[in-house]
Write a structure and sequence with these properties.
Blueprint: E1 6-10, H1 18-30, E2 36-42, H2 43-49, H3 53-67, E3 74-80, E4 94-98, H4 109-118, H5 139-167, E5 173-177, H6 187-199, E6 206-208, H7 225-245, E7 253-256, H8 263-275, E8 280-283, H9 287-299, H10 301-316, H11 318-322, H12 339-342, H13 347-354, H14 365-372, H15 375-381, H16 383-391, H17 393-412
Parallel strand pairs: 1-2, 1-8, 2-3, 3-4, 4-5, 5-6, 6-7, 7-8
Length: 413
């Protein structure tokens, strides 16, 4: 199974927006932009909402059938590990192997020594097209990189082998994810990570490194855009080199996690993938859930009441909701409006405060980040929330489609 050049991960927390999401890809295709949708949902999200991987497959299949979508599409077992992969195997055909927790754990010393010896040719000067100057890596540096990442890659291999044994090697797409680590990987790290992936026999088609800067949930990139651009370009150069050097899949591409709403780096990303004629996987998730709230607020009546209630309860549960996402949110609690104030807002005020339009003076990234992690509140509402989505499907769906098309697909691809 070969993943196409451009793909985008879309999350659908409550499984109600598949058709609205797919409508964005259909409209993009009509404009000559061919991007493959990949529905993704993590084990953590399933546990919070009370869904199962089969629910994602059913929703994706239903959306595709209803729209007569003739293109490819995938269902991603997002950020899975050895402990939870079994539950995703039947429903998924895209597996994001998350080994960030194993980064830095020591591999067997004999394995490290063998890796360093196998790749000792890089201790002689070599060049990578697209990166200025000659490179030369000491054995000590290769040892350092192997000590940090080799055990994690071996864990990825174990997960891959488990999926392969069940599904067959040609029946799924493999991504290796290392984005949820403390420090970004350098392009040199990336070179030897890819060497290890090849050595372990993982046919990775996408790799998700941790980039420089902050990739907070649902808001714009925070960091040095010029530094990110150089790093991204260097990573593309390394991937192109590694594909040939290590006999990796020819379509191997970068995957940008927490990629939704990173508007300030979309232009550099677009410029880079055109320069290198490279593919890209952009993974988004919680923005569809936020567009649901925006649509409910705009609908007024019961929809607005529910949107207000979600915020009020999220504020009450601030610490519990934010704790699992502490590394990927930065909320200034003093900048959050009170529940009493929000309960007086009309639908347009609520929607414009939440919608990611930085030109709007009402937009509040703190409000947005809290609601991004507040989906458990809506899950606890059960059918009350789902009924509201169904009752206001047209307004909600319009917002979902517009967000994916206008703010993501057209901006990046």
């Amino acid at each position: 199974m070969k993943l196409e050049k451009y793909s985008m991960g879309v999350g659908d927390r409550f499984g109600c927006q598949g058709s609205a999401q797919l409508a964005a890809f259909i409209k993009a295709k009509a404009q000559g932009i061919n991007v493959v949708p990949v529905w993704n949902k993590s084990n953590r999200e399933h546990e919070i909402i009370g869904t199962a991987p089969g629910d994602v497959r059913a929703a994706a299949d239903a959306a595709v059938s209803a729209a007569d979508w003739a293109g490819s599409y995938h269902v991603d077992a997002d950020h899975i590990n050895r402990d939870n992969v079994d539950g995703f195997i039947a429903a998924s055909d895209f597996f994001t192997l998350d080994v960030a927790d194993f980064t830095g754990q020591p591999a067997d010393e004999g394995d490290i020594a063998a890796f360093v010896e196998k790749h000792s040719r890089f201790t002689e000067p070599f060049s990578i097209e697209g990166i200025d100057g000659e490179l030369c890596v000491s054995k000590e540096e290769i040892t350092r990189i192997a000590s940090k990442y080799l055990y994690a890659i071996k864990q990825a291999a174990a997960i891959y082998q488990k999926v392969e044994a069940s599904k067959g090697a040609e029946n799924f797409v493999t991504e290796v994810s290392m984005d949820e680590t403390d420090l970004p990987q350098t392009p040199l790290d990336m070179l030897f990570i890819l060497a290890a992936i090849s050595d372990e026999g993982i046919p990775a088609q996408t790799i998700a490194p941790k980039f420089t800067g902050r990739f907070n949930k649902g808001v714009d990139y925070v960091g040095d855009v010029a530094a990110f651009e150089k790093e991204f370009n260097d990573d593309l150069a390394v991937i192109r080199f590694a594909v040939k050097e290590f006999s990796l899949p020819e379509n191997l591409k970068l995957s940008v996690h927490s990629g939704s709403d990173k508007f300030s780096i979309y232009a550099p990303i677009q410029k880079a993938i055109k320069k290198y004629d490279a593919g890209l996987h952009l993974k988004t998730a919680g923005t569809t859930w936020l567009e649901e709230l925006i649509g409910l607020a705009e609908s007024g009546g019961t929809g607005l009441d529910i949107a207000r209630n979600v915020y009020s309860r999220s504020l009450d549960k601030f610490d519990a909701l934010c704790a699992p996402y502490a590394t990927v949110i930065d909320i200034d609690k003093s900048a959050l409006p009170s529940a009493e104030a929000v309960n007086r807002w009309d639908g347009e005020t609520y929607a414009s405060t939440l919608r990611h339009d930085q030109s709007c003076e009402r937009y509040n990234p703190n409000f947005r980040q809290l609601l991004h992690v507040g989906y458990k509140v809506a899950a606890d509402m059960g059918e009350q929330y789902l009924d509201a989505l169904r009752d206001n499907a047209e307004v909600v769906g319009r917002n979902v489609t517009e967000n994916i098309l206008e703010r993501h697909l057209l901006k990046v691809f």
